[in-house]
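User: I'll paste a sequence; please echo it back and then give the predicted structure.

Assistant: Echoing your sequence first, then the prediction.
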Amino acid sequence: MKGKKFATALNCMDGRVQEPVIKFLKNKYKVDFVDMITEPGMDKILAEGDQKTLNGISQKIAISVKKHGSKIVAIVGHEDCAGNPVEKEKHIYHIKRGKKIIESMNFQVKVLGLWVNGKWKVEIVK
């Protein structure tokens, strides 16, 4: 994939959030492809997951970074999540905590948090 730019999304498996996240990352960061690593309630899994689970996610990120040259990793939470059915404030907490955990893995990439609201619009979590 020489010359093509990649990002990585740690996203919920919910099909409603795939396209908005892909479109957002392609438009905002000018990437060609988005590697999608999904789990139900990914933001909670990152924030509260056991070491074995985090190791598995880390291995998948490593493939995206090393094999595809991904320079961006996005942690995604969304409205109406069946895998993490909590209020927005708790999702934001999970996203921020997940961001710190991914940053601690030292992939040398930009790590960002994304919130997909009830209108399926993507917002950057500060």
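The chain has one domain: 6-125. The beta strands are 6-12, 33-39, 72-78, 110-116, 122-125.
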